[in-house]
Amino acid sequence: MIDVKLVVDLNRCQGYAQCVFLAPDVFTLHGEEALLYDAGPADGERDHVSQAAAACPVHAITTDIPTHHDGE
Ligand code: SF4
Prior knowledge:
Structural class: alpha+beta
CATH topology: Alpha-Beta Plaits
Distance between the termini: 14 Å
Number of strands: 4
GO molecular function, one term: electron transfer activity
Cofactor: [3Fe-4S] cluster
Helix content: 10-25%
Function: Ferredoxins are iron-sulfur proteins that transfer electrons in a wide variety of metabolic reactions.
Bound molecules: iron/sulfur cluster
Radius of gyration: 12 Å
Low-confidence stretches: none
Protein name: Ferredoxin
Number of domains: 1
Strand content: 15-25%
Number of helices: 2
Keywords: 3Fe-4S, Electron transport, Iron, Iron-sulfur, Metal-binding, Transport
CATH class: Alpha Beta
């Protein structure tokens, strides 16, 4: 199993909560703009995290998930 590594640039994050919507087990919004996230989510969250990273309007989410998928 390969762990997912995840970094959110909180200076860039505007609290749009797209990531919270797409990966609620990884991202949590507290209040208006305080985003909490799991920096090492389970492998099963890979697709959710990938979708969340793609959906973030300000591209604040960086992951080490490769852009190619091997039959997933
Ligand atoms: S989608 Fe992007 S801007 Fe919105 S809360 Fe998540 S990291 Fe922040």
